[in-house]
Amino acid sequence: MLNETQIQHFRDFGYTTAPALFGPQEIAAMRAELERFKRDGLGRNVATAGDGVTHTDAEVNYQIIPLNTKSSLFRALPFAPQVVACISQLLGPAFVRQLDQIFLKPGRTGAGTDWHQDNAYFQASDPTQGTALWIALHDATLENGTLHVLPNSHRQRFAHERDLSSDHHIHMQVDESQAVALPLSAGGGVFFNYGIAHSTKRNNTDHERAGLAYHFLKTDAVAGARLIEGVVHIAGPQATGGMQEYGERVAEEWEQEVAQLLG
Ligand SMILES: O=C(O)CCC(=O)C(=O)O
Question: The pTM is what?
Fold first, then answer.
């Protein structure tokens, strides 16, 4: 659960951090899945050579999306008790999982994801109806390009244009002097309002770094938002523990999935 100070910070500034949201065993299981994704080539490098089209190996922003079709661990994560507890505190009792993805940044060649507001993609009528949860799968530092946010930016709607360093992203201009870097140990999380401008930076170390991103939206805002894939009801009257969306209950599976992966 988040404490009052963390919740108030989210309300006041549009984001809040939760160090140690996941424990070492949980992170080990997530990294084991990440290794499988890499081995099986389940993601792709979305970085381009400055024209938004031509792919390059000189820069790597390896995106794996969606996760729920590739991994029962990541399918179960939005139902993990600590996730349900925190999102309920921030969004209220009824919400859906909108998206799930990983951005992996290899050592030295890892590229940042430029400044944007998620609501420029999702178009919810009020960005405060949704929150991202970004989880550090490795220690995330200034050197390896951790998440940066622009506090309070959810109160303003910024113009976006195509980001030519990626084959599909959009980006916006930011006064970097107002930005805040959020270093986090592996397992830590950042919750941020759909309207919070955020970015990650180059990985200037020899070791890879990955961020796991989920997006959650209040159930009563779903009809007004742009949906990139089908939503999954996590909590509230329409939630069936995944039965309706996946044809089986996955809501109680998180601990079991972690244990199974660590075998
Ligand atoms: O981890 C990253 O590089 C970017 C994550 C992000 O911007 C997002 O999920 O909206």
Answer: 0.98
